[in-house]
Amino acid sequence: MRVLVACEFSGIVRDAFAARGHDAWSCDLLPTERPGQHIQGDVLAILGDGWDLMVAHPPCTYLTRAGARWWGRPGVRALQDDAVAFFLGLYHAPIPCVAAENPAGIISTRFRKPDQYIQPWEFGHPETKRTGLWLRGLPPLMATDIVTGRHPRVHYAAPGPDRWKERSRTLPGIAAAMAEQWG
Hints:
Layout: E1 2-6, H1 12-19, E2 23-28, E3 38-40, E4 53-56, H2 76-91, E5 97-102, H3 107-110, E6 116-118, E7 131-136, H4 163-168, H5 172-182
């Protein structure tokens, strides 16, 4: 399959699909953190390039409930509208199978509720980070390795300029489940 992993700089999901023999590409405005097939640029420009599956990770800055306290500030509504439009542009792309992920937030009210929520502890990682999946043409992910001793690692990430990167990377167990179950 031709797989596009939208808004991914880490290469984690791309590499999980590539390891299973798929022609997998990541695309992000940032360069990739690890060698592999990566398009640095605007993902909207390549949505019509014949992909079979897209896993999309649109930025959550103006979408997540965690930032709700800022939603009433001047100018935020326009940024939020742009973020929702970007999310919907990815979800409705001319690609047969699409998974768009984001934390709980405004997508649930401005579009619809996700098809499912997943947690890292369902895929071998002893931590919590509730993430919604909006699916089109794909089944919900099945848990692969439920673990105990759960903690919210991403919520306690150290402050700094790269904090958002640490919080946004898909964990390998989730990426492997996506590649195994959707590939």
